[in-house]
């Protein structure tokens, strides 16, 4: 895997740009996510809710699907932004299912970055978000 550096501002900008296109008519909570793959490409996703609630798609899952569709297989970094459609951003960590989805393509030290309305960034390693995790190497 090649090491690529993407400016954190660029990653958050990609997540914020896709966030406004989320489909969240039920919760009113719009989320955008961006992942950097092993080639240094950014892939984005937004949450897509569904009237049959459990059938919705999280922003992180959408970004991962876009990465895989483009041929990517390694996540180097993740950025997530979220909040009410007409409100301020709030720190929006990935749900448990998305943490596991990130784990499929990332290493324990991969960083997940979260941003709030004031611009404060919280950066956490995947192993801190999903300790003692199960991954492909366990099969």
From TrEMBL:
Keywords: Hydrolase, Metal-binding, Zinc. One of its GO terms (cellular component) is cytosol. The active site is at residue 60. Transmembrane segments: none annotated. Residues 6-137 form the CMP/dCMP-type deaminase domain. GO terms for biological process: nucleobase-containing small molecule metabolic process; pyrimidine-containing compound metabolic process. It catalyses: 2'-deoxycytidine + H2O + H(+) = 2'-deoxyuridine + NH4(+); cytidine + H2O + H(+) = uridine + NH4(+). Its EC number is 3.5.4.5. Its cofactor is Zn(2+). Substrate binds at residues 47-53. It holds the Pfam family dCMP_cyt_deam_1. The keyword Repeat does not apply. The keyword Acetylation does not apply. Zn(2+) binds at residues 58, 95, 98. GO terms for molecular function: cytidine deaminase activity; identical protein binding; zinc ion binding. This enzyme scavenges exogenous and endogenous cytidine and 2'-deoxycytidine for UMP synthesis. NCBIfam families: cyt_deam_tetra (TIGR01354), PRK05578.1 (NF004064). PANTHER family: CYTIDINE DEAMINASE. Belongs to the cytidine and deoxycytidylate deaminase family. This is Cytidine deaminase. The lineage of its organism: Bacteria, Pseudomonadati, Pseudomonadota, Alphaproteobacteria, Hyphomicrobiales.
